[in-house]
Structure formats: C-alpha cells, structure tokens
Amino acid sequence: MDFSYPKAEKLKSKTIIDLLFSEGNSVGKYPLRLVYVAHDFEEDVPLKMGVSVSKKHFKKAVDRNYYKRVLRECYRQNKAQLIASLDKKYCFMFFYQTSDKLSYQEIEEKTKQLFEKFGKTIQE
C-alpha cells in the first residue's frame, strides 16, 4: 500500500472548503472530528483531506503546527483503512478539538476509531 500524502490529496480549494462547512456531514471521536462531503473532483484520487487545529485551544503557532503534522501523519499511516471503505470520492477536513495535549499514540488510536466510524456511516 502507498503510504504517501501527495499534493493531489491535499484539500486547498476554497469553494470545496466552503461546501464542506455549508453542506457537509460530521462524524466525531473525541477529540477528533471529521467533516465530509461526497464531491466529484478532477484528480484521480479517492479523497482530498485538510487538517485544522483551533487557535482558540493552542495560541502558539508552533503548537498548532505540531498537531497538524500529527494529524496528517495519522491520516497517512491509516488511509488504507479509510480508502477501503469508500465507494465514491470524498473531501474532508480533520479537526483536533481540544486543548488537551494528547500523545501521538493516543491520537493515532482515536484516528483509527474515527475512520472506522466514518466507514460505517457512509455504508448506511
């Protein structure tokens, strides 16, 4: 399995991000939340992903950047599980929603649980 996170998978389109917040559905596993929407984009990738860490919870940019790197790495390591459950193309944003400073292992475990929950949600 390819464990990369290529440029084509990065969610950068302002219109798609606006669509996520206006029409997207949400699934959560504390302290993570995934907002997603089915969207047919041009690139030949099954999904596009973006991350966000609240400035409200982490005032220093160095802390926010650390957690964004951790979220991207957890996605990269576990995206095979996520892609296996997809039947169409999706765009999603991955949020870290607490001021608690969890370890990488805890975040990775929550990420796996969140991806399982997302897979069950879209199968319904």
TrEMBL record:
<dbReference type="InterPro" id="IPR020568">
    <property type="entry name" value="Ribosomal_Su5_D2-typ_SF"/>
</dbReference>
<keyword id="KW-0819">tRNA processing</keyword>
<keyword id="KW-0540">Nuclease</keyword>
<dbReference type="InterPro" id="IPR000100">
    <property type="entry name" value="RNase_P"/>
</dbReference>
<keyword id="KW-0378">Hydrolase</keyword>
<protein>
    <recommendedName>
        <fullName>Ribonuclease P protein component</fullName>
        <ecNumber>3.1.26.5</ecNumber>
    </recommendedName>
</protein>
<dbReference type="InterPro" id="IPR014721">
    <property type="entry name" value="Ribsml_uS5_D2-typ_fold_subgr"/>
</dbReference>
<comment type="function">
    <text>RNaseP catalyzes the removal of the 5'-leader sequence from pre-tRNA to produce the mature 5'-terminus. It can also cleave other RNA substrates such as 4.5S RNA. The protein component plays an auxiliary but essential role in vivo by binding to the 5'-leader sequence and broadening the substrate specificity of the ribozyme.</text>
</comment>
<keyword id="KW-0255">Endonuclease</keyword>
<comment type="similarity">
    <text>Belongs to the RnpA family.</text>
</comment>
<keyword id="KW-0694">RNA-binding</keyword>
<dbReference type="Pfam" id="PF00825">
    <property type="entry name" value="Ribonuclease_P"/>
</dbReference>
<comment type="subunit">
    <text>Consists of a catalytic RNA component (M1 or rnpB) and a protein subunit.</text>
</comment>
<dbReference type="GO" id="GO:0004526">
    <property type="term" value="F:ribonuclease P activity"/>
</dbReference>
